[in-house]
Amino acid sequence: MAEPIKGICSMATKGLLLELAAAYTRSSGVPVSFEAVGGVDAAKRVSAGEPFDVVVLASDAIDKLAAAGKVDASRKTDVVRSGVAVAVAANAARIDISTEEAVRRAVLDATSVAYSTGPSGVALTALFERWGIADIIKGRLVQAPSGVPVGSLIARGEAALGFQQLSELIGVDGIVLLGPLPPAIQITTVFSAAPGSYASQPDPASGLLAYLASDDSAEAKRRHGMEPA
């Protein structure tokens, strides 16, 4: 049995990478194990020198790790493009989010609004600033802790309206997906993969990186609410 490939990823790509890792193992005979944690925590662990064969995070996070010498920049591979969706509790009234103005109104009307610590959360707060409503809703914003799904806060009644990567909202019990953000304000994050600088086996990781970017993985990416990069 080949030595397992050890990877780390953020929660946005957890379900996808579990599926693709299993498929790669079946086709190659090389076992693959991904640990999924909050993106902020993953970046901290890689930055601290924890050895991983493959790191999958938002593209800008990979770039920062590459600049610090923690991942191999020359082998960075874009994997998926992931958009943000909107959700409410399963028993809540459905809300119109078909236009930018409709989303702005929904945010203003919500008693509480949940968002993530990841790149989509940063972009969302910038959108609230652009809309001129950041100060109005400041006391109603609920930021999910790193690694905690926004959907779980909605399901528990801790937030009335939530925004997160579609891939993280799919399949969460107790919520209803209203749909993706409209194109005018859609927040798209590219998730990329790169070998860790302290990888124990960089060569087997190359095969996995190629598979993650291949056409063979495209259908799974779409099923998990993302698009091939």
Folded structure, characterized:
The two termini are 32 Å apart. α1 links the parallel β1 (5-10) and β2 (32-37). Helices cover 38% and strands 25% of the residues. It has ten helices and ten strands. The chain is an alpha/beta fold. Strands 1, 2, 3, 4, 5, 6, 7, 8, 9 and 10 form a ten-stranded mixed sheet that branches.
Which regions are unreliable across 5 or more consecutive residues at pLDDT < 50? Answer: none
User: By helix and strand content, what is the structural category?
Assistant: alpha/beta
Could you give the order of the helices and strands? EHEHEHEHEHHEHEHEEHHE
Query: Kindly, what is the distance between the CA atoms of the first and last residues, rounded to a whole number of angstroms?
Result: 32 Å
The dominant shape is: elongated
The helix fraction, in percent, is 25-40%
How much of the sequence lies in strands comes to 25-35%
Cα gyration radius (Å): 18 Å
**What's the total number of strands?**
10
Task: Provide mean pLDDT, rounded.
Answer: 95
Characterize the biggest β-sheet: 10 strands, mixed
Number of helices: 10
